[in-house]
Amino acid sequence: MRLDSLAFRLTAAAAIWLAIVLIAGGLALASVFRQSVEDTFDANLDAILDSLIAAIEVSADGELALTRQLSDPRFQRVYSGWYWQVRAIGDGKPEALDGKQTPLRSRSLFDQALRTPSRDLVDTDAPQDRLLTGRSSGPENQPLRVVERVVRLPGLDAHVSFAVAGNISKLDEQIDEFGGLLAAALGVIGAGILIALLIQVRYGLRPLERVTQGLHDIRTGDETRLKGDFPTEIEPLANELNSLLEYANDVLERARTHVGNLAHALKTPLSVLANEARDDDGPLAPVVSHQTGLMRQQIEHHLSRARTAANARVLGASAPVEPLLAGLARTLERIYQDRAVSVSMSVEEGLSFKGEAQDLEEMVGNLLDNACKWAEKNVSVTAVATVGTIPMLMITVDDDGPGLPPEKRDQVLKRGERLDEAVPGSGLGLNIVGETAELYGGELRLSESEQNGLRAEISLPRV
């Protein structure tokens, strides 16, 4: 998945939002669970606290006294993690009031004392009959949860703090275990949602892949328009593309028609001038005949070039190479059978030219015709696919003729240039081949053949 693709953008945005929601939801659930467990624990401590308050009385001499032991045996085991403490609060000091009051504590506390939430409150600040909760460290650094209530007992001129504490190490373990399970569960849920999201994105973007494949089929010539049913969001795009293709073809056809009409309109006056000059014996007749001939060549040349330029820009034009070359080879062998010229052929299987078949036929036909004219006996033509950023094919024509010196190879590619007037021709063939190849983004090169003759190599786009 590329970083600049729609699939990556949709997936990344959804994954970020999913992570935020799952993390926030996980933290909220963990907080609610912690609060619920702590509330339950505090409720249990509060119930024990009520029992403790009911078990404490003030004696006749003003001392705090425990009338009965609490039923939970953990308060009798030293440093068990469960403790209670009762003390009078006066002047902000936990020690005895007037040297008489000493704190009462559970056996489990032994010689230790609890740090309660009201330890820093003086007598006048102590909130009465209100439950105070907090955390503290007990004997042996045990983590404790402490609940405390400050009350005023009859017969005692001081507030009394009743506190009960319980070890919360197991409580913290339960909370941590729940957090781990919650993180694992949310991770699995997030992974499942992300996988479902990837499947949804791939399925949702599949119509765009069909559009891409359809355009590829049009470009390679397998189709002329986008076909198939598309979703509501993609259908307008497909319709506009089909309309654009039809409009481009209509413009091309109108241009071809106008060019053809112009050519026919010019050919008739030229024919009249040529006939009049041929029948006239005046001094201007040869000049007119020569100039009308040149004008015809120019018209044919530029018409061919305009047609080729239009064809090179038409989507979907393609032509198989092997059958076309085979037909040209048979035709030229028949034409030059009096000289027993043999044309051999080697074409890579499945090779197709990305353009009009008649343009390929004209280019290769000119090269083969030129090779047969100058060959002694053998002409060979090969066609292979080349490797590069743009798919191309290379057609090579070799002959065993006299060849061509390097300094004259550029000259023969110029329009109208002929090095031997004894051989029939107009001098336009190689020039037309080179210009046509350039219009298709290719190139014509001349070099020495392995048969000591001339080698013509033409590169053209392939499907």
How would you describe the overall organization of this protein?
The protein is an alpha+beta fold and 463 residues long. The protein has three domains: 219 residues, Beta-Lactamase; 78 residues; 143 residues, Heat Shock Protein 90. The protein is built from eight helices and 14 strands. It has a five-stranded antiparallel β-sheet with strand order 4-3-7-6-5. A five-stranded mixed β-sheet has the order 9-11-12-14-13. It has a two-stranded antiparallel sheet with strand order 1-2. Helix 3 packs antiparallel against helix 4 and helix 6 runs antiparallel to helix 8. The two termini are 27 Å apart. The relative contact order is 0.07.
List the defining traits of the structure above:
463 residues; 8 helices; 5-stranded antiparallel beta sheet; rod-shaped; Heat Shock Protein 90; 5-stranded mixed beta sheet; 18% strand; alpha+beta; Beta-Lactamase; single chain
